[in-house]
């Protein structure tokens, strides 16, 4: 009954961050059409590998995800020894993006958000 009151939901979005200063590298995308959702995300792990997750969800299949790890984990031999640390704010800045490509009907009464 609740889903009937909301109408047919439809959206698509994506975002990403690529910051070489903090090494924060990740992205996500998702698309919904009614009760069906597909999407995925990537995340650069601290060990140098990349986690890739692809997922989908539907009323008959439930939530399904495939998780993959790409690359070989690398760890420094000694943490905190023999490294010079700079606390300046110079250098190359990071980049990010956000994109919302479509929002569908989100309820009755002509209200769309």
Automatic annotation (TrEMBL):
It holds the Pfam family Chitin_bind_4. GO terms for cellular component: extracellular matrix; extracellular space. Keywords: Cuticle. One of its GO terms (molecular function) is structural constituent of cuticle. Signal peptide: none annotated. This is Uncharacterized protein.
């Amino acid at each position: 009954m609740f889903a009937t009151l909301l109408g047919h939901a439809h959206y698509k979005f994506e975002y990403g961050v690529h910051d070489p200063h903090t090494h924060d590298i990740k992205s996500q995308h998702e698309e919904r059409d009614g009760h069906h959702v597909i999407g995925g995300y990537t995340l650069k792990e601290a060990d140098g590998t990349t986690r890739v997750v692809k997922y989908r969800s539907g009323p008959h299949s439930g939530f399904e995800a495939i998780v993959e790890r790409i690359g070989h984990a690398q760890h420094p031999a000694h943490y905190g020894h023999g490294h010079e640390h700079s606390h300046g704010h110079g250098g190359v800045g990071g980049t990010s993006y956000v994109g919302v490509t479509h929002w569908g009907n989100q309820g009755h009464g002509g209200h769309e958000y």
